[in-house]
Amino acid sequence: WFCCSRDREDSWFKSLFVRKVDPRKDAHSNLLTKNEESNLYKIQFHNVKPECLDAYNKLCEGVLPSIHADKYYPCELVGTWNTWYGEQDQAVHLWRYRGGYPALTEVMNKLRQNKEFTEYRMERGKMLLSRKNQLLLEFSFWNEPVPRDGPNIYELRSYQLRPGTMIEWGNYWARAIKYRQGNREAVGGFFSQIGDLYMVHHLWAYKDLQSREDTRNAVWQQEGWHEVVYYTVPLIQRMDSRIMIPTKASPLQ
């Protein structure tokens, strides 16, 4: 009897220090994204040999727009850039797949049968030092990226969040995005599903670096913005910024 009583006391004592976890009815991704549209995005980072960057861009310009324009492939080229500040000699491509994972699989299977694309990949491989990609969903409170005229520079701000904080990030930014739409600078907001997890990407457009500086300074004059920064900074493990220049093939100019 004494042993059983002691076990019950230990169990009760431990329960005081165990955080209760509220059961969730849905995955985080379904709570944060546009369920009715099922768009999937792929972002590609290609680190190019410095002496090959011009040839790489020319190669991409000959192939990527044709895939974008061909209705046979259920995908769209959202944008393609070279980094200007940040990682050097890097190309960034952003694709959208309307229809989610089935559309992605369909495109991959069809491209395997595309002789021109196979030759493109072989030639491209000779020019690269490394490459990686991520599959992304878009936040429901961001606008869908649409083609725009230039000239613009683009900033890709990437945030590695602490695991378990994506919902909290989304709650703050659902209110914060209204502060950042005055100059049409907000292009798209995404979070990772495959690749580096708990990764958020915010894509912004500016006329030039001075416009970026002026726009970012002006937002601090709006009541409520400082609160967003105060509460979201502790959620971040790491962050970086790329300033990017669109290539000729990019729908986002």
TrEMBL record:
Residues 154-251 form the NIPSNAP domain. One of its GO terms (cellular component) is mitochondrial matrix. The keyword Transit peptide applies. It comes from Kryptolebias marmoratus. InterPro entries: Dimeric_a/b-barrel, NIPSNAP, NipSnap_domain. Keywords: Autophagy, Mitochondrion, Transit peptide. It is found in: Mitochondrion matrix. Protein involved in mitophagy. Accumulates on the mitochondria surface in response to mitochondrial depolarization and acts as a 'eat me' signal by recruiting proteins involved in selective autophagy. Belongs to the NipSnap family. This is Nipsnap homolog 2. GO terms for biological process: mitophagy. The keyword Mitochondrion applies.
